[in-house]
Amino acid sequence: MADIDALVAELTRAEKLSLVRGASDPEGTATGYLPGVPRLDIPPLRLVDGPLGIRAEGERATAFPATLATASTFDPDLARKRGAAMAREACAHGQDALLAPGANLVRVPHCGRNFEYLSEDPVLASDLSRALVEGIESEDVIATVKHFAANNQETGRTAVSADVDERTLRELYLPPFRAAVEAGVGSVMTAYNRVNGTHMSDHERLVGDVLKDEWGFAGYVVSDWYGLESTVGAATAGLDVEMPGVPSGPDDPDAEFEWPDGIPDGSRAGLFGEPLAAAIDDGAVSAERLDDMVRRVLGQMARIGLLDGCDRPGELDSERHRDLARDIAARGTVLLDNDGALPLADDDDVALVGPHIHEAKLGGGGSSETTPFHSVSPVDGVTARADGTVTDARGIPEIESVSLFDLLPFVDSGHDTQEGPDDEPSLDAAVAAAEDADVAIVCVRDASTEARDRDSLTLPGRQDELVEAVADANDRTIAVLRTSGPVETPWRDDVAAVVEQWYPGQADGAALADVLYGDRDPGGRLPVTFAPEGSYPTSDERRFPGVDSVARYDEGVFVGYRHFDANGDEPTYPFGHGHSYTTFEYRDATAVDETAVEVTVENAGDRAGREVVQAYVRPPTVEGIERPEREFAGAQPVTLDAGESRTVTFALDELAFSRYDDGWTIDSGRYTVEIGRSSADVRTTVEVYR
Ligand code: BGC
């Protein structure tokens, strides 16, 4: 491996500066680019988006399901495989660092980027963030966990300050990042927002003290794109690389242009070029700090073999990547309700309804947009699987899609403006198709993008009306949600089944058919709570979107199911919820020791199925300390044949026992470990003493 110190000693100051400020990629494919130093055989470093697949400019790649769909599997092994596959695709495109995973907690159900994130729960988000990083880095690609920290909304994201107390930061918002660091993540991207008044790229306490000193992060900290606010502040805080480093904006630099909310000012680039040199000359930033930045970048390049001229051919659109995209999409699908209408019979005559049934729902808008080589629409997927007839009807007009890129006139979004079928959709035709069929399937979606939050959890357009009309026409109506997070389902008592597919990616229709026809048991469980819009803690505007650019996180650790447990409001669908086509029985829960429990789970039905066995910890009462009623402590997904049983052992996550009070502490006393099917469906309990 290259001797980094020797290399740093040979670099001129100009060369060092060029290794910490982005430049234009001559090949035009990378999202971010560092030019390297040919004189010393230091190759360029290419960074590429993003969490849902590779977004190399003008190129195609496997479009994986939303990160949230991966979280829905509760399966770190699958997340690890996904990370590795995305990394192989990055290599195939000549990229070295992946700008993923997104690890922000789902605090606000409206957040436009929830589909890129992992969960409302810090233990689940940490397990998956760790696994994604391990997967990406197993293929010698640098993972970039983002956006550090407390970036939980898009409204005002470049200005808003998350006002959050230390305990809440430590218990909820930092763990997925700490887990990534423990997994050896090579890079951390700072968020656009402020935390307690300080911009994250300048946040010495969180970046310098916590991330680097306390957690021992040895890689480089990169700014979000145009997310740098200062030169000296950032360099002193611990920021190592400015991206993209080159300005963007209207073609005419003198044109009046107001940057839309949520879009950083692209003219502000180059704070780490000459200004950094000047700051070093002035003594405001030390020359050692520049060396440290460079050492961190070169260290990661060495780690993935770039400095040794390694050859990483990668792999693109291979059969195993296509299968994996389908596998995750199917496993992440959650069966929210089922009165027996599912699974479908092979010979059912199907009416397939919805404004977008002719296209796969790839993802949301923004930097995670991926262009696949091929995709399967719901119509194609169901038609290929069905032995009965499939009649399709769009029913209502298309839902307007939204994307960050469409907000910028000088950016070529690459979006296809081609419209779908040119005949007018007809609600009557959809109703008639539903009346004539054995079963009606209605696919509905939300519209979500980076840089915007959803303004409501109600499905956009006339989709609720469509579901109601189809449900009136056919008692066996199945509603299929394709959403970035929770939505309102006012018609749920009128339909026979509700399925949540999230954004399923390129395998969409194929994975949908896998689950609807029972070729696979729906393995997904909710990583976020579904509840009426007004009942989330963030329905108070002081908390979201905030007042005067301050969002108060004064709900503290009571986010997601912790909130609903505390205030007694029953959610529509609780955290961890999801039905199977079979039934499971739980028995013989025992404590192995103070951090591990085991339980035997039996598939008591007559078909194979997949259960996600979940453990939650209820802490002892401590005078004067408010704690959540229960905290998720781990999950074990198991696939069992009919009649088969398995004993699973949980290594309970310490985070579920401990609380932060000027340091981590575990109160002595009795902890009840609840084991079951969801946060609201406890099947058995066992006690452990700490
Ligand atoms: C996003 C990042 C992304 C970067 C580069 C920013 O707008 O917040 O997640 O990696 O752009 O595209």
Describe the protein in words.
With 690 residues, the chain is of the alpha/beta class. It folds into three domains: 4-247 and 272-308, TIM Barrel (Alpha-Beta Barrel); 331-536, Rossmann fold (3-Layer(aba) Sandwich); 582-689, Immunoglobulin-like (Sandwich), CATH 2.60.40.10. It is built from 18 helices and 25 strands. It has a six-stranded mixed sheet. A hairpin with a 2-residue loop joins β7 (194-195) and β8. The structure holds beta-D-glucopyranose (BGC). Beta-D-glucopyranose is lined by residues 31, 49-50, 99, 146, 224-225, 367.
Report the β-strand fraction as a percent range.
15-25%
Q: What is the overall shape?
A: globular
Helix content: 25-40%
The biggest sheet, with number of strands, parallel, antiparallel or mixed sense and barrel status, is: 6 strands, mixed
List the SSEs and their pairings.
Elements: H1 4-10, H2 13-18, E1 32-34, E2 45-48, H3 67-72, H4 76-92, E3 97-98, H5 122-138, E4 142-148, E5 161-163, H6 166-173, H7 175-182, E6 187-190, E7 194-195, E8 198-199, H8 204-214, E9 220-222, H9 232-237, H10 274-282, H11 287-303, H12 319-331, E10 334-338, E11 350-353, H13 378-385, E12 390-393, H14 427-436, E13 439-445, H15 463-473, E14 477-482, E15 497-500, H16 508-516, E16 550-552, H17 561-567, E17 584-593, E18 596-603, E19 609-618, E20 631-640, E21 645-651, H18 654-657, E22 659-660, E23 664-665, E24 670-678, E25 681-689
Parallel strand pairs: 2-3, 3-4, 4-6, 5-7, 5-16, 6-9, 11-12, 11-13, 13-14, 14-15
Antiparallel strand pairs: 1-2, 7-8, 10-15, 17-18, 18-21, 19-20, 19-24, 22-23, 24-25
Helix pairs in contact: 4-5, 4-12, 5-7, 12-16, 13-16, 14-15
The structure holds beta-D-glucopyranose.
Residues 31, 49-50, 99, 146, 224-225, 367 line the site of beta-D-glucopyranose.
